[in-house]
Amino acid sequence: MLKKLLFVGLGLALFAGTCFASTFTDISESAGVADDGLGKGVAFADVNNDGLVDLYVSNKGGANKLFLNSGNGRFEDTTATAGAGIDYPGFAMGSVFGDYNNDGNADLYIATGGRHEIEANRLFKGNGDGTFTDVTQEAGVGLKAFTYAASFADYDNDGNLDIYCANYGVGAKNVLYRNNGDGTFTDATDVAGVGDRSWSWMGVWSDIDNDGDVDLYVVNGRYPVGEANRLYRNNGDGTFAEVAKEAGVADGNWGLGASFADIDNDGDQDLFISNYVGANNLYLNNGNGTFVQATEKIAGANDGWGKGPTFGDIDNDGDLDLYEGDCKLANQLYVNDGAGNFKNIADKQPVVQCATVRTKGTAFADIDNDGDLDLYVVNWGAPNKLYLNGQNDSNFIKVHVEGNGNAYGAKVSISQAGKTIATRELKSADGFCAQSPNVAHFGVMAGNYDVSVTFTDGTSRTAKANAGETITIVQ
User: Which of 126, 313, 335, 371 has its CA 20 to 30 A from that of 438?
Assistant: First the structure.
């Protein structure tokens, strides 16, 4: 089954692009999303199925916020009417959306810490209309641990989303919940072999070796020295093997965020790590799940103090660019030259630097369906920022993928004349306490393209798309 959807841009008056990249405009206040809590996490999803991405902000102190996209460049704070517990006025960090029961609605898992004592994580079933129901107890996922970030992934390819909790603290054990397919979960940590007891900040999933199942990278670290990150290669039988050292990504700095992305358009997932203490690092995938360090390709990215990396093609030129929020004097915006080399151009657009502010989670999302990627930045004790992208051209193709468990792990590629141009992989949590929408965005030149989606069960679907179109492919 295949359907095509074409969204019309909202026609907002924006600045024209520069010779460096598209220009961003701060619309945080006018959009109604300049939340000024002790921000940690950002998660995008269409929670009311109206074709617009909505926004959930996790605060480590103070109420969390759910903002519904009104479609006119504004968001409405609907936290008070979204369902009991959605506000969770405690310590929340890396919360994440995912359709755990395959009913077509976005569900929400809140990763908690606890203000005075450790509190249980919470799972909310999405009702499809922007409201949620707490199903934590019956689902069996009310983990009492200081979970810094949670992530959804179908690690066993059974069509149901599982949950991984990256936990923080002395001796804290990370936990993997296997989805039983009936609305309940089973703790499969020990069987799977992924119960890392380091101080973990993020668990991000990606098929690093292109074998059809997702692998797990865990970002670790504690003051004053680092702890080696872990890479768990999926064995395809419900178990994992820890291979970080032999794969070349046992980064030993104090890591906080990590993001997989195909930065050189060669069909495999590369890895960027934001380290709080010690140099940030870029690792290029050799195509077989092993990596080579190539940090020199991102000029100035080895300074450390990193937190929130997010990749996206901000200028619709066909390659992925990088925004990094951190605790230096300013955030960075790196533009890809097409060969996987990056240049920081944030000083050309100082509005995106959030100078002297401590940034946490960051995520790209096309909030106005005009085909370019906008940017949301979560700040600690300062107003969060929403930057509207002024690219405003038709050099894009957006692919919504509908499948079991949000089709996380599916690979989307575009090609012309039989040659693959670029590949995107659908993910849940990414970067640092962040989640971008479940949409594959490509920058393209004018013309017609072949679009292919390969799902984790090995099936695939194809379609045609013209530049400037948004299409939906159904599993």
Answer: 335
Q: What Rg do the C-alpha atoms of the chain give, in angstroms?
A: 20
Distance CA 295, CA 280 (A): 8
Give pLDDT tens digits for 408-467.
999 999 999 999 999 999 999 999 999 999 999 999 999 999 999 999 888 999 999 999
For residue 207, with 0-12 CB atoms within 10 Å meaning exposed, 13-18 middle and 19 or more buried, which class applies? buried
Q: What is the maximal distance between C-alpha atoms in the chain?
A: 60
Which token pair is 127? 């009702």
| Neighbour tally for 187: CB within 10 Å | 15
Residue type, 29: E
Q: Is 171 helix (H, G, I), strand (E, B) or coil?
A: coil
Q: Tally the residues of the chain.
A: 475
Taking the C-alpha atoms of residue 94 and residue 435, their distance in angstroms, rounded to an integer, is 9
Enclosing H/E stretch for 271:
strand 270-277
Eight-class DSSP state of 112: B
DSSP readout, 326-390? ESSSS-EEEEE-SSS-EEE-GGGSGGGS-TT--EEEEEEE-TTSSSS-EEEEEEBSS--EEEEE-
Residue 170: Cβ within 10 Å count: 7
Confidence class for position 322, pLDDT limits 50, 70, 90: very high
Q: Using alpha carbons, select from 301, 294, 332 the residue that is nearest to residue 314.
A: 332
Q: Which residues pair with 323 in a beta bridge?
A: 310, 333
State pTM to two decimals: 0.94
Nearest to 398 by CA among 373, 434, 417, 421: 373
Express the helix, strand and coil content of the chain in percent, nearest 5 each: 5, 45, 50
Please give the C-alpha separations between residue 461 and each of 3, 16, 411, in angstroms, as whole numbers.
Answer: 12, 36, 11
DSSP H or E run through 139: helix 136-139
Segment 154-198, tens digit of pLDDT: 999 999 999 999 999 888 999 999 999 999 999 999 999 999 999
Q: Are 321 and 312 in contact (CB under 8 A)?
A: yes
Residues 6+ apart with CB under 8 A from 335: 20, 21, 314, 315, 321, 342, 343, 345
| 422, HSE (Cβ side, Cα atoms, 13 Å) | 26
DSSP 42: E
pLDDT (tens digit per residue) in 42-66: 999 999 999 999 999 999 988 999 9
Shortest CA distance to 58 belongs to which of 107, 101, 113, 105? Answer: 113
